[in-house]
């Protein structure tokens, strides 16, 4: 039985910072951000939009009434949780009107956890072919003003419906994962922003891809030449390239140039959004499908990386007619309709926080947003 991604969409908040503006404000050569790091724009969210509203805004346009009856599991992968105890997936389940006899959980392992969610979803559907699973990656990537990580921030969500006989990407159940106990990026309880050793995290990512690729080749006897494209976890768009290029130089596949062309197709949206943490790989997948010219039957490889670290490589094959399931027009319109913030506006928004100790109402016109703080919890507009 074929199992995989049947529907796929992303959502980003409607304000952004242009990386030239940020570079000039920080007294940095803009070429460092645009070329050295590979980012053109960075999504910024108001406090009335959090990982729950990103998730519901991404998923709602995908779900038919039939989907809402068939979904029996909602998984949210995030490292920007709004609660230490209650899973955001429980609220997302309610806001989306999914039938009640469902399992709703939140998963955590830095930028990796949505990949574990996707694997769990596929296993669940293989055992229960009539059900569907909603998997969402939702995060706010914040390193702090004037920090080394500042140009690699972002915010948003990717939603995927996993089902039998998927109409976009059937997944091959060939996952190779790698766990290593490393402190390259971490955020202890109560710390607003992560501790990060940026250069060490680059090195660990590159090394994880190299180790996993060798193991994947050994287990499957596949090579780069069996792939039409590869999509990478993209904390900033140069990162995947830094991992892929040394391996292409080492293995010298005949399709190296084609893989690099497709790599660029896979970062078009990421260049405009920045880091989505858990969602970054899947935003890159959407960018690849909506900007690359791939054919049914093409094999795509996906490399997921979460600091700490867990990394995973797996593959899927495009399904006949997959293009018709994409939301290219909607996605591009959403990106184009965003408001460009000046740096003073961005800095004010960056520092704003929701105070759960004071009741307050809000009026954010976004379809799903925080509408009220009441008695120490967030209420959302449906
Ligand atoms: N023009 C063009 N490129 C320039 C440049 C200029 N004027 N100035 C610098 N660069 C290039 C550098 O050569 C480098 O390229 P390379 O990586 O190919 O060598 C790149 O820009 C980044 O420069 P670097 O000095 O390494 O930047 P940095 O010390 O500010 O750190 C990060 C960059 C990504 C490590 C930092 O933003 C960070 O810590 N981010 C958060 C952690 C993260 O995203 N980790 C990724 C793994 S999950």
From TrEMBL:
Similarity comment text for this entry: Belongs to the thiolase-like superfamily. HMG-CoA synthase family.
Record GO biological process: acetyl-CoA metabolic process
Name assigned to this protein: Hydroxymethylglutaryl-CoA synthase
Enzyme class of the recorded protein, top EC level: transferase
UniProt-listed Enzyme Commission number(s): 2.3.3.10
Highest rank taxon of the organism: Bacteria
Residues noted as binding substrate in the record, renumbered to the chain: 148
SUPFAM superfamilies (alphabetical): Thiolase-like (SSF53901)
GO molecular function list: hydroxymethylglutaryl-CoA synthase activity
Domain Hydroxymethylglutaryl-coenzyme A synthase N-terminal: 2-164
Annotated active site: 79, 111, 233
Residue intervals of the Hydroxymethylglutaryl-coenzyme A synthase C-terminal domain: 180-249, 264-364
CDD domains named in the record: init_cond_enzymes
